[in-house]
Amino acid sequence: MKLRRHGCRRRITLSGGQGLSRSSFNGPDLSGWQGPGVLSTVFSAAIGVFAFSCGVILLYRLAVLPPQVWLIGCAVPALLWFLPTGRKLPGPFWSVFIGLALGVAWAGFWANERLEQRLPPSIEGETVVVAGYVCDLPSAGSFDSIRFSFCVTRWYGSSHTPELESTLPSKLRLAWYGQPADALPDHRLRLEVVLKRPHGNLNPAGFRYEDWLFRKGYRATGSVRSAVPDPSVECSFECQYHRIHIRLAHWVDEQFAAARHHPLIASLLIGNRGHLASRHWEVLKATGTIHLVAISGLHLGLVAFGAGFLARRLLLSLSTYRMSERSVRVIAFLAIIFCCLFYALAAGFTVPTRRALLMVAVGGWILLMAKQVPVWHSLVVALGLVLLLDPFAPLDQGFWLSFGAVSMLICVFAGRVGGTGWLAGLILAQGAVFAGLWPLLEWLGQGQPIAGLLANVLSIPWVSLVVMPVIIIGGLVVALFPELSNPIIWLMDAVLDVLWNFLEWVAGINWPTLEGASVEIVGFGVLVLLIITVPVRNFRVAGLAIVLFWASTASTVSSTVSNTAPNVDNPWVTEPEVRVWDVGQGLSAMVRAGDNVLLYDTGPEVKGVFSAAESVLVPNLKALGVKRIDTLVISHADSDHAGGIGLLMDEFEVGRILTGEPKAIREK
């Protein structure tokens, strides 16, 4: 057998030499993976990694963090495996037992470590001096302020002993009022600040600011009184990285400031979402496309695909006669990791970016080694690595959504024998992700907009095939040839015009809202996945009929809510309830008896900053199953008692409104 390539002739042998080996024709070399002992070991290892992940997640389901001695005790039973009697138990048992114990101990250790950092009451509210460096991109805040993260390297003060300083917060969330967004005098600073311990509203549902601060590692918040450059601050590798990233953000702002879609360009190019306005977030939320502007698996996957394709084609065209297939795969894998790492660093190396980078690395490694390992094993390995390197990941909603979406895609495509075609595959993927993630979104207190089906089916391929290549290649071209910035900006605006006009059009449609009980939503998701994966025609037809009937019924009920409030039933309570919501300054309380609901005041609202109705009332009322507010009482029209009335009336039917200032309330 002979092969003609580039005008040359090369013999392909079936053994030895530089030709392709026999394994190249018969698939990957699995000689080391065929034994039952090896397969059992691989299975036990996968079970152990999954159990470790469950242990990390389990810790955050506890109401109170166990003492450290208990967490250390979780790891002690693992020593029983070394006893003669312990080895008589099956391997999977020990994998689950040891993995679960180590996971709980690992997460507990880091949680205790973070909680050890606290602000002493003696300096809370006092002016203190700290030195360190800015460790994220500063952004414009409310009330003419600049907000940024500050990593402390030194606390000044005669009372700060080395023992005390080791427990002081190492990361602060600061605001400097009366300053423009670019007012920081330097990257390394000495600040006079007034600090307080982390605090936020505490309610059964809704956004918890204090949880968010803990997840991000902020153990104190405060305001800046003065700031001066401090060259004496030792700039570590992390400090140098943040300095370079801030300079990169300034360069992007300077080069692309003239672009109409500068906020989207900065977000997609370097992960800087600080320029996105409320109108951007409203459209993205209404269309379920917020993930498009968060550098994550979609974006790094595109970079990985492009880097791997180009590297492989280049190597095959230049070095066909001097490199083996395995060498080509190794170099292509290294090129993928390098390009993805470079893009992740340029995008700020945020938590979603690091998570996506790990998943790309694990998937690429499995393909590189050409091992016949179930695809679920690679997902479990990625899950374990993410939780090993970031044990606080379960506190992120993005953690659940990213692994949930990948799991749905594996369910749909992993077991398929034949191809589906790009269009059918795209529709199947979006349908599976929409239905499969709906129960998860419901658990997280979010909705699943129907608009997301249409928006994602068309916007994802446009972003993947057009927008991202133009943004990334255009950014590199401008960096190398600044004189070409004008045509590049025009091209970026053109492709983003198509995307944004489409999303605004989708967001403007009056879509029905699907509503259902938790059991119905879970059943809907499971049935859709079965329809996609079970290749039985009659089952698919019957299942599709059930799905369409339920969806039409649910959407019809939702659409009639706005016109027939009495038909909307609230859950029946046997005993009267009074709930006072924690809304910060102001007041909001709910009284319900039977299926009647009375809401007294709606709490504070500061436009573009905070709305108690959005962050507290809506999620908590929905969590209780409330669909109708029979009576809304507004004591007076001040913003701390009557904020967010319009949003509340958009989300719920309101029977009547009682207030002493009807004209002012009507204007709201």
TrEMBL record:
Domain DUF4131: 65-227
GO annotation (BP), single: establishment of competence for transformation
Keywords: Cell membrane, Membrane, Transmembrane, Transmembrane helix
Alphabetical list of InterPro entries matching this protein: ComEC_N, Competence_ComEC/Rec2, Competence_DNA_uptake, DUF4131, Metallo-B-lactamas, RibonucZ/Hydroxyglut_hydro
Keyword check for Cell membrane: yes
Gene3D superfamilies: Ribonuclease Z/Hydroxyacylglutathione hydrolase-like
Main location: membrane
ComEC/Rec2-related protein domain residues: 268-533
Regions crossing the membrane: 38-62, 69-86, 92-111, 289-310, 330-349, 356-377, 397-415, 422-440, 460-481, 488-511, 517-534
Metallo-beta-lactamase domain mapped to chain residues: 582-657
Compartments in which it is found: Cell membrane
Any one annotated GO CC term: plasma membrane
Membrane topology recorded in Swiss-Prot or TrEMBL: Multi-pass membrane protein
Keyword Transmembrane helix in annotation: yes
NCBIfam families, alphabetized: ComEC_N-term (TIGR00360), ComEC_Rec2 (TIGR00361)
Protein name: DNA internalization-related competence protein ComEC/Rec2
Taxonomic source organism: Marinobacter antarcticus
